């Protein structure tokens, strides 16, 4: 599976190089074995676990307050769960505090169909400046401060992510 993932990655990079006028053959220069371990090894993994446990212990009371605010402000689950693609193309379930209404995807489709300007804005950056789907008050605060991402320390402990490393991508972005 890792060899297939590596070949897919190399293929995507080669397609990009061909489109940009560069025609290097990467498949002969890169072997799948080079992508079988994350950079940093045991030391980095140890740091990830130590830092994540410390952050969760330190922030647990604050996270409980956030959960209560979300529960009060909007009916539905406290957490937003999304499939993400992590290291070596493996997918996992990513946890975040929910900052949008429960039917956000349906509302987005309705908005994009009714408002061409919003559709153009969303298609450029996959974001809306004044997004009506965000939970008033707590949702905006969590997004501006990135506190909605605190539950991702659980993903780090499970080995799906790293404290320091590239941003994971959604299945649609992959």
Word description of this protein:
This protein is mainly alpha-helical and 174 residues long. Helices cover 49% and strands 9% of the residues. A hairpin with a 5-residue loop joins strand 1 (79-85) and strand 2. Helix 3 (104-114) crosses helix 4 (116-125).
Chain-wise SSE layout:
Layout: H1 2-19, H2 41-73, E1 79-85, E2 91-97, H3 104-114, H4 116-125, H5 138-145, H6 152-157, E3 169-170
Low-confidence stretches: 23-36
Shape: flat
Order of helices and strands: HHEEHHHHE
| Cα end-to-end separation | 16 Å
Percent in helix: 40-55%
The portion of residues forming beta strands comes to 5-15%
Summed up, what is this model?
The protein has 174 residues and is mainly alpha-helical. The protein has helices at 2-19, 41-73, 104-114, 116-125, 138-145, 152-157, and strands at residues 79-85, 91-97, 169-170.
Keywords for this entry:
174 residues; mainly alpha; three-stranded antiparallel beta sheet; 9% strand; flat
